[in-house]
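Worked example 3. Consider a protein that binds adenosine-3'-5'-diphosphate.
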Amino acid sequence: YERPFSIGHPLRLYKGVWIAEKMLRGTLVMQQCFKSCPTDIFLASFPKSGTTWLKAMAFSTLTRTKCSLDKHPLLTHNPHQCVPYMELQFATGRRQIIDVIPSPRLMSTHLPYFLLPDSIKESSCRIVYIWRDPKDVLISAWHFAQKILGGPDKMATFDQFYEFFCQGLYSFGPIWNHILEYWEESKRRPEKILFLKYENILQEPVKYAKQLAHFIGCPFSESEENQHVVEQIVELCSIKKMKDFDVNKDSDRATSSTDLRISKTYFFRKGEVGDWKSHMTPEMAERLDTLIKEKFEGSGLQI
Ligand code: A3P
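Given these inputs, the predicted complex is written out as structure tokens:
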């Protein structure tokens, strides 16, 4: 499938996953060459589920003793520049970027669990997965695609986009398989996969920031707690703050995480729960909910 269902690259169906041709090439190289270290931390997500936020939170948590929060790299770098997107680095021959990340290496991926390189699955490295109500993912994806492709007249109608999404036709889709596989794996190996939900973090950011810090091996100390470091990190990474940093207002330049001309502004929109209500009819929402409910049945997972 050509545009508009992929963003800039045709989608291929590979082992049941819709994946942009270029990312598939990167994935195959990565599967062959990538060697994971036990200290590695991977941030995994379906696109538009809160990746940017998770990157900011994990990066600022991990680097908090090295960089003071008032001169933090996130003030001058977009989160996608701080945490490289693995498939893309391998697709574009820039894997040396990954080789030089100081340990513990923080990297991100949109790959479904089963397509991760064996060395990630087999080593004792950790994975943090973020998921989100697929209805809001769809809306976020719709706005993102419009920005990249230059407006609604350059792409499918919303109804068409919705239909394709429900068929699983979006980068790394279908979304339900993506979420379910990480969920099942996180139940089997909770020490390896932390399974987080966007909506929960939005509701109790401090609680989840602490859980994240603990999981990635740098829990907040008592004195940090007293100095409200967690709250400061949560504040630094809030969408309200991040949107306002000059670096994220810069609409002209591509991020280093991509060679598409994706402006850094595109990653920050509303950051709310339930924006689907202003786009979908109740019937559309119900149909997608029913579909997801059927797919999640018996897994213990609910939207
Ligand atoms: P909306 O389009 O619903 O606003 P991803 O980072 O996976 O591409 O996901 C993008 C979504 O996360 C967008 O959702 C974006 O606004 C939201 N987002 C980005 N930064 C955020 C932050 N710091 N806090 C909360 N949500 C954020």
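Take a moment to read the result before moving on. The chain has one domain: 11-296. Residues 11-296 form a domain with the Rossmann fold fold (CATH 3.40.50.300).
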